Amino acid sequence: MEKSAAVEQALASIDEARVVSLVQDVCRIPSVLGDELAFAQYLVDVMKDSSFTDVRLQDVLPDRPNAIGELDFGTGPRVVLTGHMDTKPESIGWTDTTPYSGELMDGHVYGHGIMDMKAALVCQIVAAEAVRSSGVPVSGRLAFAGVSDHMGDQLGSIRYFDEYSADLCVLGELSDNEIYLGHRGRYYFDITAQGKSAHTCHKPLAVNANMLAARAILELDASRLTPELEPWVRDLFGEETYMAPGRVYGGLPPGGPSMIPDECVIRLDCRPQPGVSVETVRAELDRCLDAVKAADPRFAARVELADVKSGYVADPHSLVVETMVDAVRQVRGTEPTLQAAGWLGDTASFGDTIPTVIFGPGGEPVYCPNERLSVADIVEATKVYTAFATLALLT
Question: Are 246 and 268 in contact (CB under 8 A)?
Fold first, then answer.
């Protein structure tokens, strides 16, 4: 079957009213990190009612499972549509409606976490249903994985891809319905500035660790690390590896006894482009701390690498990217651009083994009062997922 005709037939099978209704439903289910169970059970029930196979709650953490299922079209490639179920805590300041209303107003569905990424998960399931109901001659497996713990250690994605593989994968992170090749990584360093404690009444005897840490914070914040990158990677992500002192822990709790602190911990949040090593970032960190010590010989610090999440970028000429480009072209009739994200995706944990492209409805700002997503964007995302799956599985 000619691919344009196949895609057109599949797109005509999308139940647009269903996808909007299901998006409203999931917006009414809180799933803040650590509380994914109810959302996972809902997605499993939807897939069971729709006669998906291998539908189940996949154990990840206690009461925090993945929701997985698939459609079996026989021998062929395995295509996975995936995304995370957990959200950040709800924002304060909602005025148009409540965070979990799922209300449809003025062509938009309102709900906390709708863009990151409750709507995308529903769009993926309805897209799989459309491929099946269209009767287009496809072959292979079309799988869905709603995963937990994205905001934590990405254990949901790790668990899923430990058990299953994929020939092609789409991660539904919010990309404003544009094609994202990847995202930056995240390295956390804990820098413990070390001073000398004393009661405040004996200030001349102390070396205030908070004061030493303040010097380090200013030096680290002034860093402008521009590592060597392949030109196309630099064009996608920009030339600077961002480093920011994100949190500071120093001194005793409020109301505690008066004491000048001898330790202050700086959590340095680094966002490297794909290909920038931990060693490269650590060298820049050390340069900054050496500058602090040169200015104040009392400065001493202990540095620990607290967490590593790698960046990800797909080959623009890979099959998964070319298939997504074709899918967007078929839906819109225009040539899409290839972009990249600054945020961290689950591909940090599985992208090195699973060919993945990122595409999803919604964009910045996210996690804000009155968060909403237009019905037009929801429908378009469903169309693109449907087109991608059709093209990937077409015989």
Answer: yes
Beta bridge partners of 32: 87
Q: What is the pLDDT of residues 211-257, one digit of tens each?
A: 999 999 999 999 999 999 999 999 999 999 999 999 999 988 877 77
How many whole angstroms separate alpha carbon 346 and alpha carbon 147?
A: 9
Phi-psi region of 28 (alpha: psi -120 to 50; beta: other; left: phi over 0): alpha
Identify the residue whose tokens are 């953490």: 61
pLDDT in tens, 158-183: 999 999 999 999 999 999 999 999 99
pLDDT of residue 354: 98
pLDDT reported for residue 9 = 98
Strands of the chain, DSSP E: 53-61, 64-72, 78-84, 104-105, 108-110, 141-147, 168-171, 179-183, 186-194, 242-250, 263-271, 301-309, 312-313, 338-341, 356-358, 372-374
User: Cα–Cα–Cα angle for 166, 123, 104, nearest 5°?
Assistant: 160
Q: CA 127 → CA 124, 303, 368, 384, distances in Å?
A: 5, 48, 28, 8
Phi, psi of 253 (to 5 degrees): -60, 155
Task: State CA 73 to chain mean position distance.
Answer: 29
What are the b/e assignments for 221-244, b being 16+ CB within 10 Å? eebebebebeeebbebbeeebebe
What's the pLDDT tens digit per position in 246-291?
999 998 887 777 899 999 999 999 999 999 999 999 999 999 999 9
HSE-up of 15 (CA within 13 Å, CB side)?
A: 14
Secondary structure (3-state) at 107 = coil
Beta strands in 161-320, from DSSP E residues, in sequence order: 168-171, 179-183, 186-194, 242-250, 263-271, 301-309, 312-313
Distance CA 376, CA 252 (A): 52
Q: State which H helix or E strand residue 156 sits in.
A: helix 155-163
Q: Which residues contact 310 (CB under 8 A, 6 or more apart)?
A: 185, 274, 348, 351, 352
The span from the CA of 80 to the CA of 179, in Å, is 17
**What is the rounded CA–CA span in Å between residue 267 and residue 393?**
46
DSSP string, 317-343: TSHHHHHHHHHHHHHHSSPPPEEEESS
